[in-house]
Amino acid sequence: MMANIRSSAGSEYMRWAKLYSGAKHNLATSGMANLPLAELGVEADQLEINGSDAYGYPPLLEAIAARYQVDRENVVSAMGTSLANYLALAAATEPGDALLIEQPTYDPILGVARYLGLEIRRFARPAEKQFGIDVEDLERNLSPRTRVIALCNLHNPSGALIDDSVLREISDLARKRGAYVLVDEVYREMLFEAQPQSAFHLDPERFIVTSSLTKAYGLSGLRCGWVLAPRELAKRMWSLHDIHAGTYPFVAEALSVLAFEKLPQIAAKMRAMLDENRRLLREFLNGRGDLEYFWPQYGTIVFPRLKRGKVDDFCHLLRNEFNASVVPGKFFEMPDHFRVGVGIPTEQVRAALEQLGAALERYRGQHEKELVFREVKAHQDLERALFKKTPGHV
To answer: In this structure, are 127 and 159 located in the same domain?
Structure first.
C-alpha cells in the first residue's frame, strides 16, 4: 500500500501551474511581481559561492529570528514554504496519524499528507460565511489520532484573514488532544508589517508557522523559506533536512540576508503596487453581475463564483481565445469558483482584467444561447412524446 502512495504522489495543481497556466494576460499567479536583482543593490564582492551553512546560514537564521522576535533555536530555514510545510508535517507526525485540514485548501499540502501516510480529515471554511473557520465543525472532526491541525492565514484560495481569537480557540482544542497547529503564513506577509504578528506568539509550544519571502516581496527565486517551531520539533526538522537536501545553496542564503536588510523598501514598493491593483480588481468585480465574491481585506487573491455555467468551460475559452488565465476552482475543491491574482505590474493587471471581462461577456452569450437551445429541444422532445401518445396515432 505504501508503494502505491509513493508512486502516485504529486500535486495536480502544481503540474497545471507549471505547464498550463502561462498566458500573456496571467491572473493565475498569487505572488507579487518578480523583483529585479538590480533592486537589491548587490555588489559582486558581497557574494561567495561557498560558506558556512551546516544547519542554515547563521546570519540568515538571525535575520529571521529578529524579524519575528523569536529565539534562533525556534527557526528552521527551508527552500520555500512548500518544503517548510513538508518538514513541519514530517517532524510532527508518524504514518497513521490524523491530519485535520481546512476545506477548501491548497492542493500540495494534501499531497504531502498522503505521501506521509496520514489519515486526512477536514473542517469547513464555508463560502457563505466569507470563508471563516467553522470552529464547531473543526472540533467535531478531531479524533484521538489527530496530531496536526493545518490551515493557511491568509487563506488560500480566498484571502480571508483569521482573527487571533479564532486561532486561540483552535490552540485550546489542539492542546487538549496533544496536537499541533500548523499555520502557513506566507500570504500574511502581504500585510507588510515591520514587525509581523505571527500565530507562533499566541502559543509557542502549540503553533508551527511556515512562511517565506516568495509571495509578498517578489523574491521567489531565492527560495528563502522558514519554519518557526518548538525547539524539539525544530531539531527533528534539521535531521530530516539531512536526508532530503543536505545543505542549502549558499549564494541564495547570502542574497536572502541582503533582502532582509532591504525589506522595508521592497515592502513599500510592493504595497503601493498592490493597493492600486486591488482597487482595479474591486472596481472590476463590482461591475460584474455574473460573479459573486468575498472581498478579503489583504492580499493579491480573490475567489469569485461564476453564477451560471461551468468554470472549466469558461477557463478553456479564456485561455484559448483571450490568451489569459485564472486558476480553476477544481484545484481548490470548489469547481464553481476560480481564483484571480493581481500581484503582477499594474498595467498588466489593467490589460488582463479587460480580457477577463471580454471573455466573461463572450461566455455569457454562448451560455445563454446554449440554454435557449436546450429549452427548445426539451420542448420539441415533449411535443414528440405527447404526439406519440395521441389516441389513433399510427
So the answer is: yes
Q: Which residues does 15 contact at the CB level (< 8 Å), separation at least 6?
A: none
Question: For residue 123, what are the contacts with CB-CB under 8 A and spacing of at least 6?
Answer: 100, 101, 102, 103, 133, 134, 137, 138, 140, 141, 149
Select the more confidently predicted residue: 248 or 295: 295
Would you state the pLDDT for residue 249?
A: 87
Helices 58-68, 250-286: crossing angle, 10 deg rounding: 40
How far is residue 91's CA from residue 232's CA, in Å, rounded to a whole number?
Answer: 10
Q: Is 57 left (phi over 0), alpha (psi -120 to 50) or beta?
A: beta
State which of 263, 282, 305 marks the end of a domain: 263
What is the CB neighbour count within 10 angstroms for residue 139? 14
Task: Kindly report the pTM of this predicted structure.
Answer: 0.91
Domain carrying residue 356 = 270-383
Q: Write down which residue in 201, 235, 263 finishes a domain.
A: 263
Cα–Cα nearest to 302, from 191, 161, 156: 156
Cell numbers given for 182: 500548523
Angle formed by the axes of helices 250-286 and 346-389, nearest 10°: 50
